[in-house]
Amino acid sequence: MQLTFENKTIDQLAIELIQAYEPPGGYYLGFSGGKDSVIIEHLARRSGVKFDSHYCVSPIDPPQLRWFIKEWYPDVSWDCYAKGFFKKILTNGLPTRRRRWCCRLIKESGGFGRVKILGMRKAESETRKSYNCFTIPKNRDNATGWVLPILTWSDGDVWQYISEHNIATSAMYRHGFKRLGCVLCPFHGRIEIKLEMELFPKIAAAWHSAAVRYFYKRIERGTPLPFLTAEDYWQWWISR
C-alpha cells in the first residue's frame, strides 16, 4: 500500500501505516497499560489488521497498572520474562540511564522474529527523535521490525485522541503521573522518584535490598564499588 499524506488526519495516517506493513502472521503489539499503548491497541483494531497484544509482566510496575490491564484489557497476554529480576542485580548492578539492562530483560524480550507495533513517540526522549515510523531494531531487540504509528504525536495529540474516542486510561494519570511504567526507573527524575518511593514502599524496599546485597557482593568479589557504605550507593542511585 502506498501512503499518501494529503488531507489526512494523524490517526488516518497511523491506520494506513499499520495496514501497509501488516505481516502475514499478524503483528505482535507491545502493551504496557499506559496512554500510548491503549491508543495503538485502538488504532490496530480500527485498522482491521491481525494482531495479538502482549504485556511483559514487570515486578517493578505499579500494582494499579496491573489492575487496570486486567479490568479493561482481559484479552492481553501476560508474558513473564523477568522472573528473578532482583537476583539479576547481583550480577548486573542497579540499572542506570547509560546501562539500562532492565528494559531488555523486561520490556524487549517478547516478539521474537515478529514485526511489532509499539507506542514509542519522539516527544519522549532524544534517542527516539532519530526513529522512523518503520524501524528495524539493531542490537537490542529480537523483532524483525517496529511499526511506530504515533511516533510523531505530541502529548496533546495523545490526550485529544483518548478524549475523542472515550478510551479508558489508568487512574494513575488523574493522580499526577505523566508517564506510567517501572517504579524508580533510571529515567525518572528526582520528583518522580520521591513520589514513587512514598506511594510504592514495597517496590522501593525491594530495590533498596537488592542494592545492599550488590554492594556487599562486590566486596566479596574483590571489586568494591567506589562508595563507603551500601547506603551511600543507594543514595547515589536514587539521586540520579
What's the helix and strand layout?
Layout: H1 10-20, E1 27-30, H2 35-47, E2 51-56, H3 63-72, E3 77-79, H4 85-92, H5 101-106, E4 115-117, E5 134-135, E6 145-147, H6 155-164, H7 190-199, H8 201-221, H9 230-239
Helix pairs in contact: 1-2, 4-8, 8-9
How does this model look, in words?
By secondary structure, the protein is an alpha/beta fold. It folds into 2 domains: 10-178, Rossmann fold; 183-240, no CATH class. The chain has helices at 10-20, 35-47, 63-72, 85-92, 101-106, 155-164, 190-199, 201-221, 230-239; strands at residues 27-30, 51-56, 77-79, 115-117, 134-135, 145-147. Strands 3-2-1-4-6-5 form a 6-stranded mixed β-sheet, with helices on one face. The longest helix is centred in the C-terminal third of the chain and has 21 residues, at 201-221. It is globular. The model has no long low-confidence stretch (mean pLDDT 91).
